[in-house]
Protein: Arginine--tRNA ligase
Organism: Halobacillus seohaensis
Amino acid sequence: MEKHVLALQLSQLLGEEFSREWVYSLIETPKQEKMGDMAFPCFKLSPTFRKSPQDLASELAPRLKHDLFTRVQPTGGYINIFLNQSLIAEHTLKKILTEQEDYGKHSFGEGKTVVLDLSAPNIAKPFSMGHLRSTVIGNALSNLAENCGYETVKINYIGDYGTQFGKLLAAYKKWGDEELIRSNPLAELTKIYVKFHEEAKQDPSLIDEGRDWFKKLEQQHPEALKLWKWFKDASLEEFNKIYQLLGIEFDLTRGEAYYNDKMEATVDLLKEHSLLSNSEGAEVVHLDEEGLPPCLIKKSDGTTIYATRDLTAAIDRYQNYTFDQALYIVGHEQSLHFEQIKHVLGKLNFPWAQDVKHISFGMMLQDGSKMSTRRGKTILLEKVLEEAIDRAKVNIEEKNPSLENKEDVARQVGVGAVIFHDLKHDRRNDVEFSLEDMLTFEGKTAPYLQYAYVRAQSILNRGGFEINSGTPALNDEQAWLVIKQLRSFPEIVEKAYKEYDPSKIAKYLLDVAKGFNQYYASVKILNEDNHLDSRLTLVYSFSLVIRKGLELLGIEAPKRM
Ligand code: ARG
């Protein structure tokens, strides 16, 4: 509200060319408390006015007036604004009390659909850290989208097709042990797959065998098909255990193979648009004008590939969902692939090609280099999650052995730690894998936030807080920081979605909790004076924002722990 007031007044003073939206977008929050609550950088205006930012600030400041502003002060090239704390506090707490579960919600996505392509592990391979990143980032983005009014469709595009399955089938025929595979499918299948690559270095004829088995699979040879189905079902069963632990569900689980009989239509469409060229026996779409290497559509042996399937899947998704945005949450090593896909869709004249977005993320590194199944360098995610839950259990046994639903709470805390560890980093950065970091419960972690929530709940219980009893007029200095933070929640949510950046929420929650802990340390919240209700309302508001923020990240907040 105060930002809108400021933007409106400034744009009126400055004249038509300075829109309210433009001014609004430039409003800053000063780093230091003593510099005020909002600031406008006047050097953004100097090019037009041919005056120094200092002069502009001094001229404009006295003309900005509103009940919400207690002081408007030119400082350097900035106009600094101090807000009326009691008015803002009252407004904020009232808003939270009225909106409750709707606090932080937006409606700008109403009537629109976002399709998210997330997780997408490959069958017969372990669920990797990269797939974990895609899963938790994608899930958080989907929660954020919903919170902004969008319909969301979460699709798990399982990697269940491609020449590598020919290799796997060949490896199985050579070394596969049915019993072993039944008891531990992913690990055993990975083992023979790795072995295949090792042995193929000595014996190149293995590669031909792999190719033959892939051909059989393409021709729906019964044995190939049966084995492939078995590997697929067994893999999905293991993936589902992980999704259950993470508390994540999909609207659609649909593998690449689903598109096998739909790809010819895509190839025809490319032909109709005269986009296909022959290049050394393969069919490609040239992307020279775009400055990209050609997009391979059909290999010289006639088999279609990853790109063909993604093109087909995108067209199919648009037909089914008429999406406003299609987000692909996939590591940045696939950036070129998605650029190519987008351009080829553009060349097919699909106006929605521009709404296809690759939401890329950095790699999980191990000793500075990429983890890879082929080199056998993977850490099993299920083990990480189990370890996290075990540690949470040990913690509970030490601190609160009589807690109800210990199992549940341990899962919420352990899994929360792993999810938050990922989401607090800017998704674009690479992350060095460290089990220790992932499993700490102190410092900047989910358990720290969960604990802050639990403590707030207990204060509310002890204070006998009831939602309608609050008279939210809070005028103490210490509460101000917390109020301001709680007030910015809706804006942070909007930014986090628009910039596809869940770390904004994670960092925000850490700040709010820190602010609240300072408040808690300096004020006797449960003191029986006539501000008790207001303070409890603040505690309630804090707990609501923490819980909702964690929920947006896909993390549960236990009531006790
Ligand atoms: N299964 C692929 C991999 O593990 C990721 C698929 C991403 N989604 C897509 N539509 N291409 O690398």
